[in-house]
Amino acid sequence: MDLHFGDSKPTDEEREAVDALLGPPESAWEGATERTDEDLRWARGGRPARERRDLLLPGLHAVNDRVGWISEGALDYLCRRLTVPPAEAYGVATFYSMFSVKPRPATVLHVCTDVACAAAGSAELCAGVEGRLGPGSGVSVERSPCLGLCERAPAALVVRAGSPAASLGGQPPDPRSSNAGGAERSAGGAERNAGGAERTYATAVVGPATPDSAVLAATAPEAADPEAPASLAVPQAGQPGLTLLRRVGVVDPSSLDDYRSHGGYAALRRAFALGPAGVIREVTDAGLVGRGGAAFPTGVKWQATASQPDHPHYLVCNADESEPGTFKDRVLMEGDPYSLIEAMTIAGYAVGAHKGFLYLRGEYPRALRLLDNAIEQARARGLLGDDVLGQGYAFDIEIRRGAGAYICGEETALFNSIEGYRGEPRSKPPFPVEKGLFGKPTAENNVETLVNVLPILTMGAQAYAAIGTEKSTGPKLFCVSGSVARPGIYELPFGATLGELLDLAGKPDNLRAVLLGGAAGGFVRADEMDIPLTFEGTRAAGTTLGSGVVLALDDTVPLPQVLLRIAEFFRDESCGQCVPCRVGTVRQEEALHRIAERTGEAAAGDIALLREVGRAMRDASICGLGQTAWNAVESAIDRLGAYE
Amino acid sequence: MTAIPLGVPRRLVEFTLDGQEARVPEGSTILDACRAAGKDIPTLCEGDTLTPKNACRVCVVEVEGARTLAPACSRKAEAGMQVRTDTERARHSRKVVLELLASSVNLSTTPRAAEWIKEYEAKPDRFGPDAARVDEEPRVDNDLYVRDYDKCILCYKCVDACGDQWQNSFAISVVGRGFDARIAVEHDAPLTDSACVYCGNCVEVCPTGALSFKSEFDMRAAGTWNEAEQTETTTVCAYCGVGCNLTLHVQDNEIVKVTSPHDNPVTHGNLCIKGRFGYQHVQNRD
Question: Predicted confidence band at B73 (pLDDT cuts at 50, 70, 90)?
Fold first, then answer.
């Protein structure tokens, strides 16, 4: 590759941010400011130069966290350091909604306008906030898809770019660089805020947000009220009989000792006693299927990965939870982070991987902080590293942060994102178990799926399989939000009915419809409360369980507006790779706009059009995003009689 | 005589194509089998010199047992597969894909687009006059070729030809996301500020005429472009010793564009800036 770089130079701040991740440049060829005679004898090419492409996304994060946007100079410098063509890096930077390649204020206030938050008044929140945070306020207000804070709707997230803070609370997320020295860096070039102190990186979560609380958090995120503990999202917290949620709200999520005193790392010991094949057998016998939405048998996936002759094998945890209405993985990671670390270690052991990647949604700052801490503690105690538990098995976990792209939750798009490419899905076959991350055999599992492995190993496959129904075994987490009295994460054995779940959460008297499975799922009517919440039960009822979203809508919520928001979501989140999805989602939204105020005959023509476009999206799109982009709208028309 | 590499003998895969037995060498795609059987499947993002991105989805066919349709250009034929190319379901998707494309971009210079739109009875107008379009102005920032992204269907062929499949210049990429995605160089700068080496290999593979020679663009604008009157002469490039074949497209005794035969074992359709654009001296008559 003979790369061409521009003449733009990074600012000192941008250079510092990149160097904090990658170390100082070795040569002027890499963008060092001083030229020396050594440079005449310096060369780096081939694989060592190109193999660091996967650091592109962390590099973009480093610049964005520091400055708030990605300038030409910063992007060019990053490209020089990583031997990445600038055009491709620009393509990657413009792919993610959390990055900006145009100047913007250092503080960004993301206001969730998705279904649950819209029902809770996000429009008023936006109006109130935008009125007070205009140009010159130093805050840019961005309307955001679901932030995964549905139990606290309407929600907002503040991200303020700045230099790394000394305290743990404001640590800029960066799993690669050591934390030491953060406080010693010079303040040269850094902007100063009104108080005269250096502007530091900070995040704040506000929910339920009022214009006042959101503006306050946006102007001083470090002084914002501390976020409510994750256990508040679990109405059942502390109750006996819980399996997956039993430690949430009970243990200190930052303490490894606390985790171990509540049964932590018993499953890993059992895994070492069983051996990799034994673990896979247990997981297969337990009947565990993926909880991300696709319900693929986990044991089959692990077996297929483990048996691949190509090496190395990778384990990837998909924590890019972005399905509107889904927040179960966040609550698990924030309430019981060590359980995910332990489960990933077991999964890695079973599939023969020595490296695990945890791809975490970019909008989850607290989960990132707690998982970072958990990994560090586990490393320090020999629960990760060269010799896990003294068993001669080496395994380590690296966190990679997403940057605002729903599509990256698609398994192969996630691989591309980690590898430093645009997060576009790959065509399958080949499947990830054969050619996944970096083209190597990869097992990719959702957070909840992995966490289920712990009870399987501690209680045994038979006992686990006895929970739930014959075809859907085990406990399941449900994300209940919308018009219910007690929104939050509920754990129920598979087989409970929709009505039982909603009774727990406080069903409203004027329930109109329930959205099952999120934006990619479907609506059911208020009189369908006896649908069993199992994969086979929802399928038989012509709907889907998806990732476990149960979003209740009462009759005050205007259905056409909900459908429009869902259509908008898919239009915004389509990666643009294939035609049916790229253009189809736009045409779907246009048609829904046209009929927003119409019914009956007046809407019939556009509904016919929607059906035709929807059918082509479902049949001909590359990945699940396009294939499901019409599901919710279709179910609203057919099941709820919208527009009749 | 051209030496044709024979390669390792490949086993034959047997499967059913529209009810008929089909036998193709292992590794062939469904599209290869269709073409061998004389079936005409529309394609846009597929190109004979590139690995298709299967992004346009206009070649979808029905594979029995599969939940969704499969892109014929990329799905490899497997033994025992039951493939149907002309079902109502496959034709419906092709029709809608053509409608979606024709309603958002200008397909006027896309070979065969009009024919397919007619064949599949696609009606791009039915999305109404307010249907969003790509709406881009032609970018004329150099004397050699023009980028008219109003005609771009985002097939990724130019990106692949510029990148690791042929030229390794990596001057262009897809930027942005969804309907706003476009082909661009870094920072959306003019080509002259980019890594572009003006080999024109992107122009060679563009299926829609979004990328065209400046000469062709100007003549089309003036209304003088007339492909029927053009002659094509294949010769050998005289610049260096590689011996690339050039096909000179001549109208009114003027070279109007230069291509290279895609089956040429030296070029596979690719050239460098000299072969592609350095023909002015030939017609210097002073």
Answer: very high
Contact state of B132 with A620 under an 8 Å Cβ cutoff:
no
Q: How far is CA A177 from the centre of its chain?
A: 22
- Bond before A297 cis per omega within 30 degrees: no
Across the A:B interface, residue pairs with CB atoms under 8 Å apart total 168
pLDDT of residue B8: 77
Instruction: Give the global pTM.
Output: 0.94
Report how far residue A408's alpha carbon sits from residue A573's, in angstroms, rounded to the nearest whole number.
Answer: 10
- The values of phi and psi at residue B189, to 5°, are -80, 170
Question: Do residues A489 and A447 touch, judged by C-beta distance below 8 A?
Answer: no
Tell me the nearest-neighbour CA distance from A458 into chain B, angstroms. 37
Residue A578 clears pLDDT 90, i.e. is over it: yes
Contacts B181 to A, Cβ<8 Å: 575-576, 582
Q: Does B65 touch chain A (CB under 8 A)?
A: no
Buried b (16+ CB within 10 A) or exposed e, A507-542: bbeebbbbbbbbbbbbbbebebbebbbbbebbeebe
Largest CA distance in chain A: 79
Question: Which among A582, A585, A627 has CB closest to B68?
Answer: A627
pLDDT in tens, A595-619: 999 999 999 999 999 999 999 999 9
ipTM entry: 0.95
Interatomic CA distance for residues B286 and B274, integer angstroms? 21
pLDDT of A116 over the 90 cut = yes
Q: Residue A196, exposed/middle/buried by CB under 10 A (0-12, 13-18, 19+)?
A: exposed
pLDDT tens-digit profile of B82-116? 999 999 999 999 999 999 999 999 999 999 999 99
Nearest CA in chain A to B175: A91
pLDDT band at A403 (very low <50, low <70, confident <90, very high): very high
- Which structural domains are found in chain B, ordered by start? 7-132 (3.10.20.740), 145-283 (2.20.25.90)
For B66, name the nearest residue in chain A, comparing CA atoms only: A619
Residue A294 pLDDT = 87
What proportion of chain B, given as a percentage, has pLDDT over 90? 94
Q: Could you give all domains of chain A from N- to C-terminal order, each with its CATH number? A: 12-93 (no CATH), 107-171+189-228 (3.40.30.10), 256-465 (3.40.50.11540), 475-553 (3.10.20.600), 559-638 (1.20.1440.230)
Query: B187 in contact with A at a CB cutoff of 8 Å?
Result: yes
What own/partner pairs with CB < 8 Å and gap ≥ 24 does A19-28 have? A20/A62, A20/A164, A20/A174, A20/A177, A20/A185, A21/A55, A21/A58, A21/A59, A21/A62, A21/A174, A21/A176, A21/A177, A22/A52, A22/A55, A22/A59, A22/A81, A22/A82, A25/A80, A25/A81
Question: Residue A245 pLDDT > 50, yes or no?
Answer: yes
A69 HSE (CA, 13 A, CB side)? 13
- A181 pLDDT exceeds 70? no
Give, in order, the Cα–Cα distances in Å from B83 to each of A144, A578, B17, B86, B97: 43, 22, 5, 9, 20
| Average pLDDT, rounded, for chain A | 92
Asked if residues A366 and A276 have their Cβ atoms less than 8 Å apart, the reply is no
- pLDDT band at residue A197, thresholds of 50, 70 and 90? low
Residue type (1 letter), A271: A
> Edge-to-edge strand order for the sheet containing A156-160?
A139-144, A107-112, A156-160, A202-206
For A499-534, what is each residue's pLDDT tens digit?
999 999 999 999 999 999 999 999 999 999 999 999
Which residue spans within chain B are E strands per DSSP?
12-17, 20-25, 60-63, 70-71, 82-84, 145-147, 173-175, 182-184, 211-213, 231-236, 245-251, 254-259
